[in-house]
Amino acid sequence: MTPEEEIKQLGIERGAKLVGIASVTDINRYAPLGHRPDDFLIGAKSVIVFAGHPVTQGAWRSPDHQAISANLDFFRIRGGIALAVAKFIESKYGYYALADTPPPVGLNASLSLKLCAEMAGMGTRSMAGGVILNRELGVINLAACVTTMPLIADGPVKEPVCPHPSCVELWEKRRTTPCLEVCPECLSGELERGRIKWMRYDRRVCSTRAQNLSPGSFQRLLLEGINEPDSEVRRSMLLGSFSRNALQAIASGAVVGQCGECLRNCPVCMRARSLKGKNAEVKQSVGNS
Amino acid sequence: MSKYVSPELYHKYKHQVLEMSPAIQYYEGTTLQRETSCLTDREIADRLGLDVDDVTEIRCIAEIDLLPADAWLKSENWKREKAQRAFGSRRK
User: Fold this and answer.
1) What is the DSSP string of A25-92?
2) Shortest CB distance from A130 goes to which of B25, B34, B78?
3) Is pTM, for the whole model, over 0.80?
4) DSSP A215-282
């Protein structure tokens, strides 16, 4: 087994659905100064990227919107996977490794995990805010381990996952796609000859949805509350359910990934979410036993 | 934290800094364009002739401050409606 295979296997054993390797050289072609892997680990050569489902598949089948944030999946385990692999690389191979990069400052990430995943061949950018779509897994949640160990990189995939052929058909008929249709406030763009021609993503609006219960919403609520002259209104603002839920989310650390409406009707994600095939396999194996 | 930004500096640059930041992301094909927006705090500071710590503070405040105060509450209602509508016909 090669070191690359061994590392990937460990990631899978620890709970990742997919593991890819990107070279720092590839990442640095696109990442601006200050946001490159070797800005955080001197001499970094490789980034190992781990992916999993953002939420359980059942969360998409709940009429309660809070099921999404209550059922975060890979987000809850990704840190442990990256840490296990970082420690494995340091102890077995003697190369330095980071299990994470510094936290975001405001809404700006220190290192773009989307870029790392692209360079690790785990998927391509989608019309839905540029999130990475994987052909089999749909939308993926990500973690990364940065290391000084030189590893053979997987490299970007050649054929884009987005747009799906059914989205191209819809575009030709109605000049829209499922993601653009559901969230025109965050997303806009055009397809041309079956490819994304251009796209625009408004992170400001998206952050109020995907980070609805978060430090940002709580900070703003607090400011509004402090400035509110009417004590009765102030009590309602600060002791109400929204501020309480925001605090609960902050306390549990689950303050991101709280919306996925742009991907609810994405055909790539819908196929990935379906359990029908797996169900049939299980039924068959039970029947054969 | 590095320092508090002065109110004068904040009000003078808040819109400009936010527009130059990754608040709006524009792609040609699937390639992110970074000529006028999606810039790092350092790049914004260099273009505006500001201290990078000031740009970081202005951006962080503007990311929250320049949205309507009820934006998060409206977003929660928006998500509630979307989830309910997705299963509406089945639940009637």
Assistant:
1) HHHHTTSPTTSSHHHHSTT--EEEEEEE-SB-GGGGG-SSTHHHHHTB-HHHHHHHHHHHHHHHIIII
2) B25
3) yes
4) HHHHHHHHHHHHH---HHHHHHHHHSHHHHHHHHHHHHT--S----HHHHT-HHHHHHH--HHHHHHH
Rounded to the nearest angstrom, the gap between the alpha carbon of residue B91 and the centroid of all alpha carbons in its chain is 37
Each residue's pLDDT tens digit, B33-63: 999 999 999 999 999 999 999 999 999 999 9
Confidence of residue A276 (pLDDT cuts 50, 70, 90): confident
Please answer whether residues B18 and B59 qualify as being in contact, where contact means their C-beta atoms are separated by less than 8 angstroms: yes
Domain ranges of chain A: 3-147, 212-252
Out of B30, B32, B63, closest to residue A106 by CB: B63
Contact B29 A195 (CB under 8 A): yes
Distance, CA of B59 to CA of B44 (rounded, Å) = 10
A42 has pLDDT over 80: yes
Q: Which of A205, A216, A258 faces B64 most closely, judged by CB atoms?
A: A216
- Chain B nearest-CA distance from A92, in A, is 36
Residue type, A86: A
A263 contact partners, CB below 8 Å, separation of at least 6: A128, A131, A138, A139, A179, A269
Please give the order of strands across the beta sheet that includes A195-202.
A187-192, A195-202, B24-28, B31-32
The pLDDT value recorded for residue A286 is 55
**pLDDT for residue A287 is more than 90:** no
Q: Where are the beta strands (DSSP E) in A73-217?
A: 97-98, 124-125, 132-134, 138-139, 141-147, 187-192, 195-202
Separation CA A101–CA B68 (nearest Å): 32
Give the model's confidence band at A288: pLDDT under 50 very low, under 70 low, under 90 confident, else very high: low
Rounded CA-CA distance A162/A118 in Å is: 13
Provide the number of CB pairs (under 8 Å) joining chain A to chain B.
Answer: 125
Are residues A257 and A141 in contact, defined by beta-carbon separation less than 8 angstroms?
yes
Residues A68/A211, Cβ–Cβ less than 8 Å: no
- Which pLDDT score is estimated for A277? 63
Q: A189 has which bridge partners?
A: A199
Q: Where exactly are the structural domains of chain B?
A: 7-91
What are the φ/ψ torsions at residue B45 (nearest 5 degrees)?
Answer: -60, -45
